[in-house]
Amino acid sequence: MFIDVAKVFVKAGKGGDGVVAWRREKYEPSGGPYGGDGGDGGNIILKADEGIRTLMDFRYKRSYSAESGENGRSKKQYGRNGKDLILRLPVGTLVKDEKTDKVIVDLKENGQTYIIARGGKGGRGNAKFATPTRQAPGFAEAGTKGEERSILLELKLLADVGLIGFPNVGKSTLLSILSAAKPKIANYHFTTLTPNLGVVRVDEEKSFVIADIPGLIEGAHEGAGLGHDFLRHIERTRILVHVIDASGSEGRDPVEDFCKINDELTQYNPRLGEKPQIIVANKMDIPEAEEGLEKIKETFESKGYKVYSISAATLEGVNELKYGIWDILSNIEIDYETFDEELEEFEDKEESIIVKKEDGKFIVEGDFIEKLLYSTYFDNIDSLRYFQNVIRKRGVVERLKKLGIEEYDSVFICGHEFEFFD
């Protein structure tokens, strides 16, 4: 089974908490803060691996979490960092944010890596908060949460050549002749329900990858048949080889067939019309094919298309086609563009603080303020003073004043209610 779309949830590890500890050793009467920092949480890393061909594994497991960092220890010992989790994906996988549908990263090179969810940072122990005026801080810092998000994985086939055309025009047969691939071949429509890949050897150290894209039909760009599933894979090819039944054996006009398929391509994505395209007039062993070939050449050669006449059944013209494909590939740059939506813009969520007024309530929230809140020991004067200083330096108090807050008004910080005093 060829699985080419998957939705997964990823969650990086939480950073370990810093600890409050004191130095209590013989011959060290002054003691002092001795709490260590927490370890960083593990990242979740995506890695492109050419040894993987489908997204099958992600169909059965849909949630992935990296290891959290350890809490700090006494004697200024750091907690251990959480282990990274590496998810291996096929080369050619497009990763999108599930909420916005924007592209996060395009994994189109073997070995390419990307951190899809960063682990939380370890919190600082109380030893880090000691100052000349605050020599015995009785508080530490909590570790931050790891990033989490739902992502869409979309596999777009990586191939040099894409075989396109209506069902039953001989694409699978041509693939089996040009390469060692063994696609299912039969005389009925939609024999191919998933793309088939093959490697075509031209000469020593000269070869290319060819993909038999399942047969397209009218309305494919709107999802008719399995249209969107099939069209997705065409974007990854460098050139298109358009196979036409020159004999019109199923009562269709070969010229109309070509125009209909290309219309589907450009309606799905206008840039697909810019790809180099070769026309292959197949089934030349059938007598009626000569008339069809003449019509094809008369219509398309004047528009710059190269037309090859072949018979996949008798192998006539197949070698000429193979070398013609190689000649074009040798003279164009490799560019596996997908032409998808714009890349997602990065936002530093950890540092964001939201200050707003809703239904008469003053609200402060955000990842940074949540971390600060849970790091505060409210029964410790030093910790409380540190909390107040930070929210002032971050402009929270000033922004609340602009919203009209007054003495004794309630402020809700991450769900906790506080009274406002200036």
TrEMBL record:
Primary location group: cytoplasm
Domain named Obg: residues: 1-158
Enzyme Commission numbers on file: 3.6.5.-
Any single Pfam family the record assigns to this protein: MMR_HSR1
Keywords: Cytoplasm, GTP-binding, Hydrolase, Magnesium, Metal-binding, Nucleotide-binding
Segments traversing the membrane: none
Cofactor: Mg(2+)
Domain called OCT: residue spans: 338-422
Sequence positions that bind GTP: 165-172, 190-194, 212-215, 282-285, 311-313
Domain (OBG-type G) ranges: 159-330
Class in the EC hierarchy, top level: hydrolase
Sites where the protein binds Mg(2+): S172, T192
Role description: An essential GTPase which binds GTP, GDP and possibly (p)ppGpp with moderate affinity, with high nucleotide exchange rates and a fairly low GTP hydrolysis rate. Plays a role in control of the cell cycle, stress response, ribosome biogenesis and in those bacteria that undergo differentiation, in morphogenesis control.
Protein name (Swiss-Prot/TrEMBL): GTPase Obg
Gene source species: Tissierella simiarum
Gene: obgE
